[in-house]
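Is 2NL placement plausible here? Inputs below.
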Amino acid sequence: MSDYDDLKAAVQADVAAAADADALERIRIAELGKKGRITGLVKGLGALDAEARRAAGAAINVLKEEVIAALEARKRDLADAALAARLAAERIDVTLPARPAPQGAIHPLSQTVDEVIAIFGEMGFAVAEGPDIETDWNNFTALNIPPEHPARQEMDTFYLPGERNGARMVLRTHTSPVQVRTMLATQPPIRIIAPGRTYRCDSDATHSPMFHQVEGLIVDETTHMGHLKGCLIGFLRAFFAIDDLPVRFRPSYFPFTEPSAEVDIGCSRQGGTLKIGHGADWLEILGCGMVNPKVLANCGIDPERYQGFAFGVGLERITMLKYGIPDLRTFYDSDLRWLRHYGFAALAVPSVVAGLGQ
Ligand code: 2NL
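Reply from A.M.:
I modeled the complex. Tokens:
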């Protein structure tokens, strides 16, 4: 037993009741600070004789150590309790499903371009590209389209103001000028498709001033109309994924091809709904022909030695037919709900071998 047991018990009770680190610090100052109770006891030792001072000093030192130990133990307990409370409150449920990341989608027109490239790529066609702003010569003159031709009128073609290097500039009305550039730059054999944006001064429910086209061109020494027919029948059957799709070639006229043809696919319109692939009706789908020898000559290719075929397809039209998109104008609205509905998964890259769509 020591003379300080009561004091020790009182301090221990205070320590046990301290709710936080601040309360503990207040106790430390009250007991061990400069004016603290235990500090006062040490100061009082001087008044005692040597014998009593030694005994009391030892007892006060023991008391001091015990109070310090009690303060530190309580401090540790409070810190442990605070940590335990945080761990409980911030516990992560690792079994919850991950938050979905925002997903993009491939625009149906991009999907169609990729499919068309996959089909013609398999047949050995390379992809060629060129500028949207073209010379009047590349877009019209080289293609044997005379100055008085209706396509050249302001109401059909967007002409740019002024001239560039003495040439009148237009927004290309088809992607043929890409093929003209290819013929001017390289000698046959040529086997290319030219997908891209095209422009015509026309805007209603079925015409947009900006639209998309794929043109194709083969030039070689022995290319003939049989190649043209086999190539386009193969393309249409692969694109619409109908092995026995009926295809019909109808005589037509384009200044840049001779002979020229329009191509129809079999369909039915029974009950007011269009169904591709069977039935008694026909649906016009593209234009084609043997490249006019004048066009070859204009582009620096000897028409006595070389001949070829060309075709042009509207991409919006075949996309609407294949994927059942009823309104042309929705292609350019940038409506995310529309894109999520009609769009395609980014990783489902079309390939003829792995399957084109979806
Ligand atoms: C259509 C018709 C066609 C071509 C485009 C072409 C290009 C060159 C030479 C000859 Cl460089 N022809 N292109 C030929 C026939 C038809 O498009 O109705 N397209 C939607």
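Short version: The first helix runs from residue 5 to 17.
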